[in-house]
Every structure is written in structure tokens, then in C-alpha cells.
Amino acid sequence: HIRVVRNVQAGDIVVFFDNMDTPIMRAVDTHFAKGRVGFGSFDDTVDLREIVIRGE
């Protein structure tokens, strides 16, 4: 499982694997206040199941 947490006002983008409490990746970017979600793969096929996207 991958969980991405985005706080638009603060610009935080935080990425977690499985049920980790500590993120594996963290960034700050206040440029984009809204947008779209996309999926892709490089040099291979991908099988996506049970995708959940939540917003506030």
C-alpha cells in the first residue's frame, strides 16, 4: 500500500508505504493548489487493484 498525504495550504507532500508512521519521502511545494491524479509505469505493464482516493 502507498499513502500520499497532501496539505495544500502548507505545501506538504508526504509518502508512506504500508502502515508506516515515518514517511519514506517528504517534499514541500506550494505551486499547485489543485490538479489531477494519474498512474503510470516505466518499461513494464502494471496491474492496479483496490484504488482509493479521498479528498476533503
Report the strand count.
3
- Report the helical percentage: under 10%
Biggest sheet details? 3 strands, antiparallel
Number of helices: 0
Mean pLDDT: 90
Low-pLDDT segments, ≥5 res:
none
Name the beta content range: 25-35%
N to C succession of SSEs: EEE
Label the structural class: mainly beta
Radius of gyration: 13 Å
Distance between the termini: 21 Å
> What is the 3D form?
globular
Side by side, the strands of the main sheet go 1-2-3
Write the layout of secondary structure elements.
Elements: E1 2-7, E2 12-17, E3 25-28
Antiparallel strand pairs: 1-2, 2-3
Textual characterization of the structure:
The protein has 56 residues and is mainly β. The protein is built from no helices and 3 strands. Helices cover 0% and strands 29% of the residues. Strands 1-2-3 form a 3-stranded antiparallel sheet, with no helix packed on it. The two termini are 21 Å apart.
Would you kindly provide a brief summary of this structure?
Helix content is 0%, strand content 29%. The chain has strands spanning 2-7, 12-17, 25-28. With 56 residues, the chain is mainly β.
List keywords for this structure.
56 residues; mainly beta; three-stranded antiparallel beta sheet; 3 strands; 0% helix; 29% strand
